Amino acid sequence: MRVAVCADVGSTFTKAAVVDLDDGRLVAAASAPTTVGTDVLHGLAAAVAAAAAGLGVGDAPWYVCSSAGGGLRLAVVGYEPLVTAQAGRRVGLSAGANVVHVAAGRLGGADVAALRAARPDVVLLVGGTDGGDADTLTHNATRLARARWRVPVVLAGNVDVRDELRGLLAGAGVPVTAADNVLPRIGVLAPASARAAIREVFLRHVIGGKRLSRGSRFARLVRAATPDAVLTGVEVLADAAGGDLVVVDVGGATTDVYSVLTPDERDSGPGRQVTGSLWRARTVEGDLGMRWSAPGVVRAAAEERLLAVGEQDVLVGEAAARAAEPGFVPVDAAGRAVDGRIAALAATVAVRRHARGGATGERDGRDLRDVRLLVGSGGVLRHAPSGDAAVVLGAVLTDHAGGWPVPRDARAVVDVDYVLAAGGLLAAEHPRAAGLLLRRHLLAG
Q: Which domain of life does this protein belong to (predicted)?
């Protein structure tokens, strides 16, 4: 039996899985607390040892992703807020980044100071279509060079000046990686090259810089930021399913929504969006989560008029208690019911924002009517009784008052075995195993 070890080092828990590479079978899985306070390799080793106990997988390859230490913090600097800066933001989200700052136009001294204050791990520098305006991109690259900028930069703007500006930045000591333009022409969004460059920078510069481990082994093991691995898994699943799908991942601090839609030929017409359509997209709602961000869920739900009369008063206290004690685990039916309600509200608000287009930067929103599969992820859903998880996902599928067209005929499933990240990690080197793994656990039945 040929197997691989797949692991996700999260902020709280490290999940490990042993996958049969011949038939895509999940052989075993386990988790252990992430040991950020000492060395994350300790928690990783514990999770892998628990998953691989008695299997004799000593020489099996490891595929690891990580969101420990806050994941990948990305800042975007663009030419115009509604075009290239927005395009850059959407590409950053698709690369698994937490977009912490967006600047547009010519950078001044105060703008550079604000950029520093955002503490990004990577800056995505974009601007101009190919053959179009190059002045703003040139100005901003020059400004960063003169500011003695040392945070890695991914340069993904007008290709006419790419080589010149790469040389300028590198000559000033700025770590720079060049990529193709994210917006080569109006209405065409091209994320692949920049996404790959961001991934490369994350692995080469960011993982080691977060000091999550004393040595270099952890940095060598990590192949992707966790959201990037999950999005790849979602893409593999969509290809296997042969249709549109949505994944909503309700976490302790954020709720992430991924969607894969079938390209619509109508998008190429005169009414197309200036920044183009991103058919495979991800959004991150930093104010919606089960623990650290639970108070944000209640506030957002109240603003969206999702709460029953008197419910807000109860949930405010419950959410505050969960934010104060992120390790809280409900021990009775009442506590589990509150968790379920917070999860349903977080999922509903997150999908509303994703579908309406505000979170994705799409003027006309994302049309999810043809979605055939809704996948729920996150510990609150994986560990809940199937009926409780169905209620959470059912709230999304019946959100007819949410200002977005709900899926007409979608089936809901939960990623109980946490295979999306594993499938994404295996996709490049073992695509058949990745596809079989996701089919077996999320499409069967």
A: Bacteria
Find out whether 315 and 341 touch, Cβ atoms under 8 Å: yes
- pLDDT at site 74: 92
Q: Each residue of 82-126: pLDDT tens digit? A: 777 888 888 888 777 888 899 999 999 999 999 999 999 999 999
Rounded CA-CA distance 393/411 in Å is: 10
Both structure tokens of 379: 């510990």
Q: CA-CA distance, 417 to 178, in Å (whole number)?
A: 38
DSSP 307: S
User: Burial code of 109-121, b = ≥16 C-beta within 10 A, e = fewer?
Assistant: eebbeebeebebb
CA-to-CA distance for 349 and 345, rounded, in angstroms? 6
Dmax (CA) for the chain in angstroms is 63
Other beta carbons less than 10 A from residue 139's beta carbon: 15
CATH number attached to the domain at 72-207: 3.40.50.2300
Per-residue pLDDT at 445 exceeds 80? no
Do 1-69+417-445 and 72-207 show the same overall fold? no
Q: Is the pLDDT of residue 77 over 90?
A: yes
Check: pTM over 0.85? Answer yes or no: no
367 contact partners, CB below 8 Å, separation of at least 6:
261, 264, 405
Domain 1-69+417-445 has CATH 3.30.420: yes
Q: Look up residue 86 and give its two tokens.
A: 């927005």
Domain spans of the chain, in order of start: 1-69+417-445, 72-207, 240-414
